[in-house]
Amino acid sequence: MGLKEGTRVPRLVKVAGLIGLVGVAATGCTTDEVLRFGWPEGVTPQAESMRQLWTWSVIAALAVGVLVWGLIFWSVAFHRKKSEELPRQFQYNVPLELVYTAIPFVLVVVLFYFTAVSQNYVLAKSEEPDETVNVVSFQWNWEFNYPDYRTPDGEPVRTVGTSNEVPLLVLPVGETVQYNLSSTDVIHSFFVPEFHFKRDTFPHPDKNNQDNVFENVIDREGSFIGRCAELCGTYHAMMNFEVRALSPDKFDQYMQLRTQINPRTGEPNNAAEALSAMDCGELCSPTAVTSEQFSTERTGGVPS
């Protein structure tokens, strides 16, 4: 009987280890995907900072979990009731209690420190960003305007989404971009998964409980879907936009075209017309490539 009990525990450990190994292998994830724990691949240094904080926080949590689970199973396996004799008691073991108190305290302090460091980096703002864009949300679409670029009529370059067009937020790579968020009706939320960042947009600046300005630096060209992440009404699910990240020279060319009059329409070039005039393949597609148009009336509200 004793021999069987002695061999059962190692066998259970082997089975548990095998199940865990098969579980990890069956996911089909690469090492990079495993370390991101489900997060998309970030495209900004700020996103990478948050990803690292998330990864190491999860690893620390798993380590604590494995320790606790191990102690539980160890107690179940080796400290089962074997007789009516009361086992040795440890409820007044002061050194052990101090250890149990000190370890969680150290874990909390370390986690707080790295959280504060990452948060300060992500929320840092420069005095003179390279580019500034005003993000205006409304039911159920987006407006992006660039106050530093003016059309011949003196108005800022502006892109407004419609029911027939997913709006493109064109930004330069490798430059500090400042986003000023606002809303014209209800609370929405500006969310780009590859930024690893979400921030609500409020209709009343004086009633805003968070900073409506943030900055980041996009580190590679590409197209990245953006969404509203705050339930805001009937067509909330269709309230998408697209970030189009271009190299600085392409961005300058794009803005130059946006500030010029289109001889065919007599109006300044819109986003689609400016991108169509540029020769850079899919990166200059005049329409969104990450989200499809929806045949719905998505303009319950109005832009600025």
Automatic annotation (TrEMBL):
Cofactor note: Binds a copper A center.
One GO CC annotation: plasma membrane
Annotated GO biological process: ATP synthesis coupled electron transport
Keywords: Copper, Electron transport, Membrane, Metal-binding, Respiratory chain, Translocase, Transmembrane, Transmembrane helix, Transport
Group of enzyme by EC: translocase
Catalytic reactions on record: 4 Fe(II)-[cytochrome c] + O2 + 8 H(+)(in) = 4 Fe(III)-[cytochrome c] + 2 H2O + 4 H(+)(out)
Domain annotation Cytochrome oxidase subunit II copper A binding: ranges: 128-257
Classification via InterPro entries: CcO_II (IPR045187), CcO_II-like_C (IPR002429), Copper_CuA (IPR001505), Cupredoxin (IPR008972), Cyt_c_oxidase_su2 (IPR014222), Cyt_c_oxidase_su2_TM_dom (IPR011759), Cyt_c_oxidase_su2_TM_sf (IPR036257)
Keyword Electron transport listed: yes
Record-level Gene Ontology MF annotations: copper ion binding; cytochrome-c oxidase activity; oxidoreductase activity
Transmembrane regions: 55-77, 98-116
Bilayer disposition of the protein: Multi-pass membrane protein
EC number: 7.1.1.9
The protein's required cofactors: Cu cation
Localization: Cell membrane; Membrane
Principal location class: membrane
Keyword Metal-binding appears in the UniProt entry: yes
SUPFAM superfamilies attached to this UniProt entry: Cupredoxins, Cytochrome c oxidase subunit II-like, transmembrane region
PANTHER family the UniProt entry points to: CYTOCHROME C OXIDASE SUBUNIT 2 (PTHR22888:SF9), CYTOCHROME C OXIDASE, SUBUNIT II (PTHR22888)
Role this protein plays: Subunits I and II form the functional core of the enzyme complex. Electrons originating in cytochrome c are transferred via heme a and Cu(A) to the binuclear center formed by heme a3 and Cu(B).
Similarity comment text for this entry: Belongs to the cytochrome c oxidase subunit 2 family.
Name the UniProt record assigns to this protein: Cytochrome c oxidase subunit 2
Organism: Saccharopolyspora montiporae
